[in-house]
């Protein structure tokens, strides 16, 4: 289960060279852990086929940036999407950090 969730989180993150080089190893791990449904596995496989269509990791990184870094509608940063540049954004981030701390978790800065 932990491998599946780690892999899914890595696929949402900015593409790394390590991920690019190990992309062919992802589906066997996901299938072995049997956490995802057949439908979800197919979606991950479709995404990995898309990723593999790029000639190199830099092309994948450029596509990632085009989608997630240039539009507030497709940002992966929750507070950017919800609050934009509102002053409420800063307080919401402080409140979230406090919730993490109450739960005994230390969020990365």
Outline the structure in words.
The structure is a single chain. Helices cover 66% and strands 0% of the residues. The radius of gyration is 17 Å and the shape is globular. 5% of the residues are buried. It has 2 domains: 2-70, no CATH class; 77-109. By secondary structure, the chain is mostly helical. It starts with a helix and ends in a 7-residue tail after the last helix. The model has no long low-confidence stretch (mean pLDDT 90).
Strand content: under 5%
State the end-to-end distance: 26 Å
Q: Would you tell me the overall average pLDDT?
A: 90
Helical/strand content category: mainly alpha
Number of strand elements:
0
User: So what's the overall shape?
Assistant: globular
Domain tally: 2
Count up the helices: 7
Describe the main β-sheet briefly: none
Quick take:
By secondary structure, this protein is mainly α. It contains seven helices and no strands.
Secondary structure elements and their pairing?
Layout: H1 2-12, H2 17-21, H3 26-33, H4 38-52, H5 57-68, H6 78-83, H7 88-102
What are its keywords?
single chain, 109 residues, mainly alpha, 2 domains, globular
């Amino acid at each position: 289960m932990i491998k599946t969730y780690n892999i899914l989180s890595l696929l949402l993150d900015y593409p790394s060279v390590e991920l690019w080089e190990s992309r062919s190893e992802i589906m066997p791990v996901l299938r072995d852990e049997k956490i995802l449904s057949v439908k979800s596995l197919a979606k991950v496989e479709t995404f990995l086929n898309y990723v593999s269509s790029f000639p190199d990791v830099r092309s994948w990184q450029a596509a990632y940036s085009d989608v997630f870094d240039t539009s507030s509608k497709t940002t992966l940063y929750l507070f950017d999407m919800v609050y934009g540049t509102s002053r409420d954004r800063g307080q919401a981030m402080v409140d979230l950090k406090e919730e993490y701390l109450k739960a005994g978790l230390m969020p990365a800065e």
